[in-house]
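Try this one yourself first.
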């Protein structure tokens, strides 16, 4: 984590400010403190802040009032709320309004640091920038003929500087392939910059890509380097490029033709030498026919095309992927090693995986949390959110989601503890306040769980 990243803490409790400041400073952050909303706004207007942490309940200007002012002046700034149990509903409303997250008090320092790093890495305000080789890529899984052929193509493409278009279903591993191209290329020691065109609001994407100068528009209070410029001598990965607007397609086409950019509000041309890799799950040829995507831009980004096969077409890779995900998740979370019996591997290979590799990874991680005696069984995957393989075989199901997995985990913990929320919270490793909130959020009927767990023999 770079020491240049700056966090502002806003809280009327001086003890909280001191504790948070010490924790953040010791982990390489630059820190500003404010005891109320007005002081925070003054600092925001004079300092460059990367992330804001604010208490929800403060005298004078509340956390929510501060959030609305911040959103008006600094719409890209990530905001996290600290909230006591009684103000959790307000924090939830703030998240729905655009705050990135909230943390319930009391919270652990490591929990906060983990969340900060995740937000600063994934937020559009701070794009994912990879300098050099990464240790986070999954081990190569190329037992299937389809993946063996893909890796051969990646090796060939990596040695050149041509633009690449990666096609594939959501969750199939398009970013994984793009990282491999970058890491096997001569640009590996420079930045790999990821732009999520699908989640970045259209109004922000131009500024994110091209940057702006101070005064270019109402809220431009300082110069900002764009992501294209950040990728100079490296690789620019445009994920879900099919979602960009017609205006952005024109600007991007001009960059690809001239390899220069102009920051918003500036006439100066800035030369940029970067390789462009684009990806999409959409049918761009169909979008061209319907007038939604420019044909000339399509041919600019599609010098070479790579197709990522869906997981259901390369089931030979599932066992190794599953073992990789188990090993990685247990290591990251300091869990004891988890076993994958043959029956579980067989189950995994028979499931259609409509969400592809991303769904497999999420299912494995949820199953590890839910399994007993560190042995991951097929029933653990069912409780993690996957539908019954034989009772609900339709691959079009959308029942697997993060919220669904979380709800199922809580229900199972409550079932095992006969509805005692305190014991269920201990089983899940969360606070009693957290489980009370989750039970209410997911509308879980505690009385029904208790009645079923106490049926007479």
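Now uncover the answer:
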């Amino acid at each position: 984590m770079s020491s240049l990243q700056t966090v502002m803490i806003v809280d009327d409790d001086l003890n909280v400010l001191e504790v948070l400041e010490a924790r953040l400073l010791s982990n390489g952050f630059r820190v500003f403190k404010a005891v109320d909303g007005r002081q925070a706004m003054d600092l925001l207007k004079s300092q460059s802040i990367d992330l804001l942490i604010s208490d929800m309940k403060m005298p004078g200007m509340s956390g929510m009032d501060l959030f609305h002012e911040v959103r008006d002046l600094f719409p890209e700034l990530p905001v996290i709320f600290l909230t006591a149990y009684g103000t959790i509903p307000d924090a939830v409303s703030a998240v729905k309004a655009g705050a990135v997250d909230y943390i319930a008090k009391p919270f652990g320092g490591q929990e906060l640091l983990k969340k900060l790093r995740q937000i600063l890495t994934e937020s559009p305000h701070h794009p994912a920038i990879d300098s050099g080789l990464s240790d986070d890529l999954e081990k190569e899984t190329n037992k299937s003929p389809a993946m063996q052929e893909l890796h051969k193509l990646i090796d060939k493409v990596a040695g050149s500087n041509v633009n690449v278009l990666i096609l594939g279903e959501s969750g199939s591993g398009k970013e994984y392939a793009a990282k491999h191209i970058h890491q096997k290329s001569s640009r590996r020691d420079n930045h790999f910059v990821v732009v999520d065109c699908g989640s970045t609001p259209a109004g922000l994407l131009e500024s994110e890509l091209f940057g702006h100068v101070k005064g270019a528009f109402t809220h431009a209070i300082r110069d900002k380097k764009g992501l294209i410029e950040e990728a100079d001598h490296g690789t620019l990965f445009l994920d879900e490029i099919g979602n960009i607007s017609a205006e952005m397609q024109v600007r991007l086409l001009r960059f690809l033709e001239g390899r220069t950019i102009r920051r918003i509000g500036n006439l100066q041309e800035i030369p940029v030498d970067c390789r462009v890799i684009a990806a999409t799950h959409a049918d761009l040829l169909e979008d061209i026919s319907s007038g939604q995507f420019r044909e000339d831009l399509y041919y600019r980004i599609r010098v070479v095309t790579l197709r990522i096969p869906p997981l259901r077409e390369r089931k030979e890779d599932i066992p190794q992927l599953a073992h990789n995900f188990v090993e990685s998740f247990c290591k990251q979370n300091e869990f004891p090693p988890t076993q994958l019996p043959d029956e579980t591997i067989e189950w995994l290979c028979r499931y259609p995986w409509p969400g592809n590799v991303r769904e497999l990874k999420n299912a494995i991680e949820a199953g590890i949390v839910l399994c007993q005696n560190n042995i991951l069984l097929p029933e653990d995957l069912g409780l993690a959110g996957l539908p019954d393989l034989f009772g609900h075989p339709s691959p079009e199901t959308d029942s697997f989601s993060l919220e669904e997995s979380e709800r199922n985990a809580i229900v199972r913990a409550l079932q095992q503890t006969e509805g005692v929320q305190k014991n269920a919270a201990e089983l899940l490793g969360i606070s009693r306040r957290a489980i009370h909130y989750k039970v209410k959020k997911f509308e879980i009927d505690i009385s029904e769980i208790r009645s079923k767990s106490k049926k007479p023999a």
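Discussion: Residues 124-138, 390-400 have pLDDT under 50 and may be disordered. The longest helix spans residues 318-332.
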